[in-house]
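Human: If only I could read backbone structure tokens as easily as an amino acid sequence. Underneath my words sits a plain record pairing an amino acid chain with its backbone structure tokens. Take your time, and here it is.
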Amino acid sequence: MLTNKLSPRTKKTFRIPISSLSALVFLLVALCAQAQSGVTLTWDAVTNSSITGYHLYQGNASGAYSTVLDVGNVTQTTLTNLAIGGTNYFAVTAYNSDGVESDYSTEVQYVVNQRPPPATLVFAATSGAISAPFIVDNGVIYQTTQTGATDGGRAVYDFTIVNPGDYIVVASVNAPDQSADSLYVNIDAEPVDPTTIWDIPTTAGFASRTATWRSTGSTPKVFTLTAGTHQLIIRGREANVQLSSVTVSPAYPTIHLTIAAGNLALLSGMAQIGQNYEVQASTDLKTWVALQTVAPDNNGSFALLDPAAPSYPSRYYRLRGIGP
């Protein structure tokens, strides 16, 4: 039986292991790069048939809770729109149908990390440091003369990589004919002639094209980047090639599975920016069902939770591109 919270000498305390709670909190925060102002909390169920629900307490100082949320008879909840940079303290209590409430669980502390800079890997062409003979006109850049790698227009875009790995450059370009279908492109180094020439398939108006190097043929150029700051450098070559936007995107879609407390399946990964993906699950590698459609954020990251995973003895996952 639960005792009244106002009678401290006769309280019965239901302890919730801090290890499972704190591990899940920080694991979810690390995975959900696109929702870092939110956090998912989970706790062990109290094994008492009289329990009808739980209260989640939250405050900005240890033991001083300014808000309480009745989450019902569940052992997980997600909070969103937490203050960036703020420190939050959480504890849970159980209650019965008479409103009698248990003592607080072990307390968990969570600091909401600063979001990464928005759109760090997606740029308008005119947002970089632009040098002549590039011309900036109505949201695009281009040059009117043919040049080499050292005297062409220069556009430099600073960006930050959160997740190290392999990346490609995708740009919206207008390359109308074979006399106007090439640029130079490189990351963290000046382009050189002829190695880093990007021969662009001709377009009818602006089209999305993945950068290649003449030295490697038509295979997309893959840049292996470390976490931290980098520079994308584009230089003009042929006249009248127009550039309207640039994206530095993960080269290959990946999906990772992490099992958290309660056998919850946490799925995270990297995928091409601007592409939508359907996350699918299977128990036999033959029949696949759609879990959710995800769109990678501006860093190429995505994350989701499969709450049904504990119901299966085995569970497999894959990604399927479904277009923007």
Summary: The chain is about 5% helix and 45% strand. Residues 11-111 form a domain with the Immunoglobulin-like fold (CATH 2.60.40.10). The first strand starts at residue 39 and ends at 42. Residues 112 and 136 are 40 Å apart (CA to CA).
